[in-house]
Design a protein that fits this description.
The chain is an all-alpha fold. The chain has a domain at 4-102. It has seven helices and no strands. It has helices spanning 4-17, 34-44, 46-60, 68-77, 79-94, 97-102, 122-135. The longest helix has 16 residues, at 79-94. It is elongated and about 60 Å long.
C-alpha cells in the first residue's frame, strides 16, 4: 500500500498515538502492526487512503522525526484526516483479542455475548441519580402543557 519510507513513518506515528507500556508488556500501535490493518482499510476506502497519504506527506517534511509535537501539528493542520487515522487506529488496535485481554476486557467479540459489566452499587446509584431526583417530576404533557 505504502512505500517502505511511508510505512516507517506510519509505524512511528502509530507508536505515538498508542505508545507502548513496557511495564505491562503492552506494545505500541506501530509495533503491534496496526499499519497492516490501516492498509486493508485504505485498500477498500480511497478517501481514507488519500487522507493517510496526505498525513504521511506532511510527516515526511519533519526534520526532528516523529514526535508528539509533530503528531499534534498533523492533527491541527489536517483534522479530518487525523480523525480518520485515529478512529481506524483504535479499531485496529483494540479489535485484537490479545490486546483486549491486556486491558481487562474479554477476548471474545462484543456481540453476541457482550462483556460482563458489574452492576453499580446502590450507594453509587444514589449519587448518580440525586440531581435528577432533586429536580422533581418534570415531563412534557402530550396535550401541550407542562407539569
Amino acid at each position: 500500500m505504502w512505500s517502505a519510507d511511508e510505512r516507517n513513518l506510519l509505524t512511528a506515528i502509530l507508536d505515538v498515538l498508542i505508545p507502548p507500556n513496557a511495564a505491562r508488556a503492552i506494545p505500541g500501535g506501530g509495533a503491534l502492526g496496526v499499519a497492516d490493518f490501516l492498509g486493508a482499510v485504505a485498500s477498500q476506502d480511497a478517501q481514507f487512503r488519500t487522507q493517510i497519504t496526505a498525513l504521511l506527506n506532511m510527516a515526511q517534511t519533519a526534520t526532528d522525526g516523529i514526535t508528539i509535537e509533530l503528531v499534534r501539528q498533523l492533527e491541527a493542520e489536517q483534522p479530518d484526516a487525523f480523525t480518520a487515522l485515529l478512529t481506524e487506529t483504535y479499531k485496529g488496535y483494540y479489535s485484537r483479542p490479545d490486546m483486549r485481554a491486556k486491558f481487562g476486557v474479554g477476548a471474545h467479540p462484543v456481540h453476541p455475548l457482550g462483556y460482563d459489566v458489574p452492576p453499580e452499587s446502590p450507594e453509587l446509584m444514589e449519587v448518580l441519580t440525586a440531581p435528577v431526583r432533586m429536580r422533581g417530576r418534570i415531563f412534557r404533557d402530550p396535550t401541550g402543557g407542562t407539569t
